[in-house]
Each structure stands twice: as C-alpha cells, then as structure tokens.
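To illustrate the input format used throughout this study, we show a single complete record. The first block contains the structure-token representation of the backbone; no residue identities are included at this stage. The design step must infer an amino acid for every position from geometry alone.
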C-alpha cells in the first residue's frame, strides 16, 4: 500500500492533506512544501539530478548548526545562485526567492525538511522568531550573498 501511494499521482494530494504516514507531526511544513517547493524539488524532495538538488541529507545536516539554519532561511528568503554539489552532482541553477510565505510557514517547511521530512522526532528545528532573527542578521541578502553562507559539509 505504501509503495502504491509513493508511486501514485495521489502522493502530492496525500502530502497536501498531511495524510501520508509518518508526517502527522509536520502537516504545515508538508503542505507548504507540496504547494511551493515540490514543483522543482519533487514531491519527495529527491530533486532531479543535474537540474534541482535533493533536499535530503544535506538539509538535515544544515539544520544542526546555527550557520546552516541561517543559510536555509536565507535560501528561501533571497533565492540562491551559485554552484552547489549534492550527492556527487553539480548544480549551477537559480532558485527564485520564495515570496509570500509567512515567517511561520518558512519555519515550518524548513523544520519539515531538516527533520528528514518529519521522520526524525523532536521539536521543530526552526520557529518563526528564528526566521525573523536570521533575516535581521542578513538584511541585504541576495541570491549570491546567500550562496556565500552555504556551510561546507564533510564528505564527498
Ligand atoms: C523554481 C524552482 C524552485 C522552487 C520553486 C524552489 N527551489 Fe529550492 N532550489 C532550486 C534550485 C535550482 C536550487 C539550486 C540553486 C543553485 O544551483 O545555486 C535550489 C536550492 C535549494 C536549497 C539549497 C540546497 C543546498 O544543498 O544548498 C534549498 C535549501 C532549497 N532550494 C529549498 C527550497 C524550499 C524550502 C523551497 C520551497 C519553499 C524551494 N526550494 C523552492 C529551485 C527551486
């Protein structure tokens, strides 16, 4: 059954309703993701190799440091431009700034991703106040300056 849902076009709908198994704690983040991010990053955030990076392991890692959390907030706030390497693939794309999201929605979608899409238990990685604080630390952020904030991760 879960394989059926995973492969079916109803997956996005299940996501939007927060009805997919294992996502019960993150309905707000999952629905922001489905509505705003999945169009590029894919319904399961697995990306499209060479075009859109996955938002899996590296986002969980970014969520574990203050610098990484600032980076995540600013990617959504300003968009991103610069070469990123994820899982052996290189991306030289442009992510547009995601306007129109409240601070609570930005916190929810990033907490959802940083908890491995709701699979890791624990309190939200980011709250609305953290989003406001990160933006205050980087008031003139651009897609290029946000790129400079990207933490270097160990490993390949
Ligand atoms: C129009 C397509 C598009 C949309 C919509 C989009 N992104 Fe992106 N995103 C990209 C591209 C392209 C990149 C890589 C940019 C680059 O190569 O510099 C990216 C990169 C990222 C990164 C950095 C990944 C890394 O390894 O450093 C994060 C985090 C991210 N996106 C989160 C989101 C979230 C959260 C949303 C929804 C609120 C979203 N994106 C919506 C296209 C998109």
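Output of the design step:
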């Amino acid at each position: 059954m879960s394989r059926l849902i995973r492969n079916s076009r109803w997956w996005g709908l299940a996501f939007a309703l927060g009805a997919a198994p294992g996502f019960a704690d993150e309905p707000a983040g999952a629905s922001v993701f489905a509505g705003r991010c999945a169009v590029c990053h894919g319904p399961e955030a697995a990306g499209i190799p060479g075009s859109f990076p996955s938002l899996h392991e590296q986002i969980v890692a970014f969520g574990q440091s203050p610098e990484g959390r600032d980076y995540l907030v600013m990617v959504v706030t300003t968009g991103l431009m610069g070469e990123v390497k994820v899982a052996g693939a290189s991306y030289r794309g442009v992510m547009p700034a995601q306007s129109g999201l409240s601070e609570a929605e930005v916190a929810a979608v990033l907490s959802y991703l940083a908890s491995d899409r709701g699979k890791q238990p624990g309190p939200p990685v980011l709250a609305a106040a953290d989003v406001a604080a990160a933006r205050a630390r980087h008031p003139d952020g651009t897609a290029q300056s946000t790129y400079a904030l990207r933490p270097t991760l160990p490993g390949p």
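Structural context for interpreting the output: The first strand starts at residue 80 and ends at 81. The chain has one domain: 2-148.
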